[in-house]
Amino acid sequence: MALVRVISSDGAAFLVSQRLAKRSGKLKTEIETFRKSSDNSEAQPEIRIVTIRAEILRLVLQWLQQHQNDPVLPANQNEQDGRGDAEMGQSQWDRDFLAPMDLGIVMELILAANHLEVKGLLDITCKLVESKITGRTVDEIRTAFKLKSDFKGNEEEQTRLENRWCVEN
Amino acid sequence: MEDIPDSLILHIFDYLDYKDVTSVSQTCRQLARVANDEILWRNLFHRHFVISPNKFIDPLCTPSWRTEFIRLIDEVPIIETEVVTKHTDQVLHVAFSHDGKRFATTAKDGYVYVWRSGYPVKLEYSQNMKTFSWKYTQFSQFNESDSLLLVSGVLFGLHSTSGEIAIFSLKDNFELQCRTMSKPYDIFGSWYSEMFFLSGNLHWLGQMVSKSVIWLNKASQEAESEHASVMNELYRFYNPKASSVRSLMVANCVEVENPSNGECSRAATNEEEKVDQAKSSQSLDIRDIRTGNPLSNLPLERELMEREPPASQRSLQGGFQSWKPFENVSDINYSDGYCSERSPGQSSRASLQSPSDLDSADNSTEETCGASSSQLSNELAGCVGGTPAKRPKSQKKHRDQRDISPSKCSSVEDESEDEFLDPRPKWLIFTCGSKTYTPHQLGFKKINPMSFNGKIDPGPTLKERIEEYKRRKQLERTGEQDASINWSDHARVAHRFDEVDKIIDLHGHVIGMALSPDHRYLYVNSRPWPEGYRISSELDPPPIAQEIDLHVIDLTTLTQVGMMRRAHRAYTPNDECFFIFLDASDLYIASGAEDKHGYIWDRHYGISLAKIPHKDVVNSVAFNPIEPEMLITVSDDMTIKVWRSRNLCRKLEINTEKLKFGTTLYSVPKGNA
């Protein structure tokens, strides 16, 4: 079985099958690039992901492992189709997978899924974030995402007035 | 979230409901920026209001999807701010003044009320028309400067089909200015210009055949001279198959930018063009049945861009789908079966009329010269109470263009050059029919600028008239009179009538019409007939559907450009079917319905926005033309309801907590409350 070494930003190396790695659009491109530039077809590719730390990379690979037999979702699907897939793709396993994570990890996972072009993972993580926003007040959202109001002067009041149309209904 | 690029945040936001997006936008500057993204709001808009993703933004509005979104939530009049219970019977009609400061209501209780439209609305004038032997008031209309109010009603009588129009001054303590008979009563009447209005009269010519005469009336009657006329005959129309002209309406002709069809008179051009129009409109119709949207103020080019796939690719639903867009009145063959019963007065009329110079096929000209018209007026319309006069020289230019021999118009030419009553050419719009007595067609007649003939033609003396009458009676007894005139044979008598410039057949019972504020579009409520229904007798009109279809006619081309088959309903059968009035603002359409609700649609997107409840049939609706976030509905439940938008309620500091809201009609797919 052909393998590939994937190295995180903090230097941890993961050895995974190329078949699994190719389910990430980004890794697939990297593997193919490596092939073209290398004379030895037997050589094991090594890919360094400088933006993703080991903890997150492990989660991504774990998710890919679980979903290795899912049909590959084209990354350029439009939003409306994508939403439908996210509903479909969210299994009990996914829910258990995401449940223990705090929002900071989820945000990192979103960035990683986006960078590695793993659409299925991106969809479920975005959906999770969405569920943390839906139906919340402004303050609740700030607390959940550890956001600080950085509005200046009367900006905050102005934003509130601009959105008053939405409050009563 | 600070580390996440905007594009990814947008991806997350794409899953959110608009309320959540606005909440997020208030948390911090980055998210506020992202939450105002146009594409995000476009997607939210299309999803929330369930419209096709290809739909363009309303060109009349600020080019922002977010602003559009807010408009449809916040600026639609769906809060019941006032319920006025002053009428003591079914309220039939409501009309706003042009300045938006007043509105008038008419009802079965015989009263006309004029209200000030501030918050809350206040009664300003009232008049019980039962004191004028009216059974009830049914319609009203303000003149352009809002100085006069036209009120139309039904005269008392068990089976009365006669109506009357009364004019009241709004400057002068609601003083009565004049009254004119009008027949049938549901011809309503309409202002033509600041001081002149149109009324109608109906004369039976034979079995199932009648003549509708449209009169131009002066809104105030000076008493000085009995030789000063107060009304001029404007048109006479031929009514086959027991039909008649009803629901008069006057629209200013709108100029279109496009030079190729920039002339209002386009509709009166050659047959080929009519065929072209019919064809193109047919394809538009089919498209619109599919999308269910009326097209609005879009340039025609854009309408073409929006065209959707051919009809064959779609499955249509519902009962009455096959749409026959046009049927020209001249195509109809009148059977010989309708016997040639003659009405009194024909012989004298025939003798006074000049024969037509033109062949009857394309004869659309007014043939009658002033003198005969006046005589006829004396005979047939003398009962009206006003003093009839010669025809206005309105058609003078018209006639010259059409090569009528000048001698016929000599009496007209003699007149001094008076001022035009109104320099703008106008469309006279009305309902009519060619198959049965229920109104199923729209008639359009261009009114060129004209002046009013104030001088009266004294006509024959009383002695002459008595002799004429005796002579005619004699002829009738001996049966020698003009057996040649068969009124049922339209082709042979067509030259005695004004030809309608354009007829649009709606294959259904027309129950209400409204103009867009710019007078470019006509919106029509119609209850469709079953597809392919064959009418066996004009006295037996087809059954009508319970749905009300909304048709949109472009008055610059006189073609149908849109159609909407939507939620509003009516239940009454044919012979009891009454008017369900609708109204158009620049942005919205509203209509009454028999299912105890008023309905509001967006004109541009064509989506139904809300239904607003009454306890009984909603007969009429009117937008405040200056503040379209205010809507009035009137109902058989005897109430007048005032509806305002959330935005307007905030401005007026109305506490909406305990007020009733209408129901929004677009579906929200995500189920977020």
From TrEMBL, chain A:
<feature type="domain" description="SKP1 component POZ">
    <location>
        <begin position="4"/>
        <end position="69"/>
    </location>
</feature>
<comment type="similarity">
    <text>Belongs to the SKP1 family.</text>
</comment>
<comment type="pathway">
    <text>Protein modification; protein ubiquitination.</text>
</comment>
<dbReference type="InterPro" id="IPR001232">
    <property type="entry name" value="SKP1-like"/>
</dbReference>
<keyword id="KW-0833">Ubl conjugation pathway</keyword>
<dbReference type="Pfam" id="PF01466">
    <property type="entry name" value="Skp1"/>
</dbReference>
<dbReference type="InterPro" id="IPR011333">
    <property type="entry name" value="SKP1/BTB/POZ_sf"/>
</dbReference>
<dbReference type="InterPro" id="IPR016897">
    <property type="entry name" value="SKP1"/>
</dbReference>
<dbReference type="InterPro" id="IPR016072">
    <property type="entry name" value="Skp1_comp_dimer"/>
</dbReference>
<protein>
    <recommendedName>
        <fullName>S-phase kinase-associated protein 1</fullName>
    </recommendedName>
</protein>
<dbReference type="Pfam" id="PF03931">
    <property type="entry name" value="Skp1_POZ"/>
</dbReference>
<dbReference type="InterPro" id="IPR016073">
    <property type="entry name" value="Skp1_comp_POZ"/>
</dbReference>
<feature type="domain" description="SKP1 component dimerisation">
    <location>
        <begin position="119"/>
        <end position="166"/>
    </location>
</feature>
<dbReference type="InterPro" id="IPR036296">
    <property type="entry name" value="SKP1-like_dim_sf"/>
</dbReference>
Automatic annotation (TrEMBL), chain B:
<feature type="region of interest" description="Disordered">
    <location>
        <begin position="260"/>
        <end position="322"/>
    </location>
</feature>
<dbReference type="InterPro" id="IPR015943">
    <property type="entry name" value="WD40/YVTN_repeat-like_dom_sf"/>
</dbReference>
<feature type="compositionally biased region" description="Polar residues">
    <location>
        <begin position="343"/>
        <end position="378"/>
    </location>
</feature>
<dbReference type="Pfam" id="PF00400">
    <property type="entry name" value="WD40"/>
</dbReference>
<feature type="region of interest" description="Disordered">
    <location>
        <begin position="335"/>
        <end position="417"/>
    </location>
</feature>
<dbReference type="InterPro" id="IPR001810">
    <property type="entry name" value="F-box_dom"/>
</dbReference>
<protein>
    <recommendedName>
        <fullName>F-box domain-containing protein</fullName>
    </recommendedName>
</protein>
<dbReference type="InterPro" id="IPR036322">
    <property type="entry name" value="WD40_repeat_dom_sf"/>
</dbReference>
<dbReference type="Pfam" id="PF12937">
    <property type="entry name" value="F-box-like"/>
</dbReference>
<feature type="repeat" description="WD">
    <location>
        <begin position="84"/>
        <end position="115"/>
    </location>
</feature>
<feature type="compositionally biased region" description="Basic and acidic residues">
    <location>
        <begin position="300"/>
        <end position="309"/>
    </location>
</feature>
<feature type="domain" description="F-box">
    <location>
        <begin position="1"/>
        <end position="44"/>
    </location>
</feature>
<dbReference type="InterPro" id="IPR036047">
    <property type="entry name" value="F-box-like_dom_sf"/>
</dbReference>
<dbReference type="InterPro" id="IPR001680">
    <property type="entry name" value="WD40_rpt"/>
</dbReference>
<keyword id="KW-0853">WD repeat</keyword>
<feature type="repeat" description="WD">
    <location>
        <begin position="611"/>
        <end position="643"/>
    </location>
</feature>
<feature type="compositionally biased region" description="Basic residues">
    <location>
        <begin position="390"/>
        <end position="399"/>
    </location>
</feature>
<dbReference type="InterPro" id="IPR042508">
    <property type="entry name" value="FBXW5"/>
</dbReference>
